[in-house]
Amino acid sequence: MKTVPAALILGAMALAAPALGVTGGKIGTLQRGTYVCEMPGDAATRRGVPVPEEGFEITNASTYRSPEGNGSYLRTGDRVAMTSGPMKGDRYMIKSERFLRKLASDGRESGLRCIKLGSTRD
C-alpha cells in the first residue's frame, strides 16, 4: 500500500478551497461602469454635494480609471482596496452592489459615498 505525503494532501485541500482574501472574505470584482461620488448634503438645500475628483470607472475585472489615471483594486468580501495607481491606498466598504462608502484612514466610514450610474442590468 502506497502512502501519500501529508504535504501533498494539504496542498490539494488548499487548492480546492474557495479563494479568500487577507480579511477572510471571498475575492471578487465590482460591477463595471462609472461610480460618481458625493458628500451628504443638507436636506433643506440639496441631496448631495458632488465630488468629481473622487469618482472612478471600473473598466474590467479588477482595474479602474480615475481623472488622474488608471490602477487596480482588490475586492475581498465587503471591502475594496485600491492597490495601484493614483487612488492607491483608498479603501471602501461595500454597502450594496451599486453603493460604496469610502473609509477613513482609521477604518471608519467617512461621509463620502460612491454610487454606480446606469441601469441595474449594467
Question: Which descriptors apply to this entry?
Answer:
about 120 residues; eight-stranded antiparallel barrel; 1 helix; 10 strands
What do you see in this structure?
This protein is mainly β and 122 residues long. The protein has one domain. 9% of the residues lie in helices and 43% in strands. It is built from 1 helix and 10 strands. An 8-stranded antiparallel β-barrel has the order 2-4-5-6-7-8-9-10. A hairpin with a 7-residue loop joins strand 2 and strand 3. The longest helix has 11 residues. The relative contact order is 0.19.
How much helical structure, as a percent, in the residues? under 10%
Please list the strands of the largest sheet in the order they lie side by side.
2-4-5-6-7-8-9-10
Overall 3D form: globular
The count of domains is 1
Query: How many alpha or pi helices?
Result: 1
> How do the helices and strands follow one another from N- to C-terminus?
HEEEEEEEEEE
Content of β-strand: 35-45%
Structural class: mainly beta
Radius of gyration: 19 Å
Give the tally of β-strands.
10
